[in-house]
Amino acid sequence: MKKNEILEEILNEVDKHPEIMSRREAMKYLSMSPMAASILASASVGAVTASASSAKGKIVIVGGGLAGMSTAARLNNTLSNADITVIEPDPISVSYQPGQTLVGAGLWDLSDITYKRDDFLPSGVKLIKGSVTAFNPENNSVTVDGSKEVSYDQMIIATGLMLNYAAVKGLDGVITSAGKDNSAVKNSGIGKDGLHSIYFQDGAAATWKGIEELVAKAKAHKGPEKLQAVFTHPNTPIKCGGAPKKIMYLTNSRLEEAGVRDKVELTFYPNGGGMFGIKDYHTAIVQQFKDRGFKWHYKHNLVEVDTANKVAVFDHHWKEKGAFDEDLGEYTMVTKHERVEVPYDFMHVTPPMKAPDVVGSSAVGSAKGWVPVNKETLQHVKFKNVWCLGDVAAVPMGKTGGSARKQYKVVVSNVVASMEGKSLSAKYDGYTVCPLITSIGTVMLAEFNWASKKPGSGVNAASFPLDPTKERWIWWLLKVYALKPMTIYGMLSGRA
Length: 496
Description:
Largest sheet: 5 strands, parallel
Distance between the termini: 10 Å
Strand order of the largest sheet: 5-2-1-9-22
Structural class: alpha/beta
Shape: globular
Number of helices: 12
């Protein structure tokens, strides 16, 4: 897609809300963002994607979502003789999942975030409409739908992850693909009676109805005690670590907008011991919580939901000093547990997440399920012609679209280098970005990489010369109007 076409898509988004901003103003703010400028520049038809190569080989990409299709497009742009095949069963596999938070807040519709896979299949790339049911890396092949064997010279795994609602007692053992729809999820009770989750498409739409119901209930509420709105964050890696807080901030905005914020207590229950893995962002979020009157309780993992009585059950866990070890000369640390029951009027559940079983139980998986790769080259630690990117990759951080935007370029460069018999020079530095929505109208643009986590490093990876811990309207404009067109049309052309 040409750069001016991406700009037109952005401006079409702006046109939906002319009362907020004009096209002229949008162009002004886009010109101020180095992130936008770099993406738009790289998306130009004449932009260099990777060095052209005549290397030959059969490449199989498992997964036709954003990461897989972007990788296919960039490989197709780069290789003149390659045989590229994508394996994906879902006809609507390209979902702009970051937009589900905005759907959940009533700002977007589902139609704003769903795209047909076939519309983005690069010319010349083959498509197998099926599911990989077995990985056979020792034989350089995969099995599709239990019967068809597909061989490869290079394999790229981009399956995404699974939403493991089954890990929470009372949610009827539901496991489903992130971003996709599954009637079993809705049948579990999620999406009604105050129990919601934005992590699947219809769940996001139902969350908005749930917020509207909470507002109506608050308007009618007369008692001295406040209604309880509960938000959870599980004990596993998750897609977009900021999303559980984003929907909380947006619920707060909708309650304020309706004039009933004082009738609802908003409480965050994260499994971890902090708000964010980067100290500066953690400190900023704690202050934002204080400013908004939020409550929070660290080290609480949701383990059960009594949907009939609307009670959430958490495992509150902490460490205490135990017996003194004479040999080591130190005290042992003992993990303590406490069952905590929390009534709710509204609850947003962020489910535990895991790698698809077919990946985790195979030779390309690991004990924890995720695909073990070198965190910089994204090459499998055991099979040198296997690569992985996106949510299913076992890298320290970054199960986000922003991570995938960096990773797919690294994978393509290194796959091509491997096919040419060259050393792997492309390195992923752990960059990711979390546009943390803090209200309807403000975003804190948290950019970071692995170096950011080192104590005293001072590295925040910010692409704009402003304090990244501050909430700003300009980042709201970037999030709501620009990131989706730049992601969908830039990445899926293999350029941005």
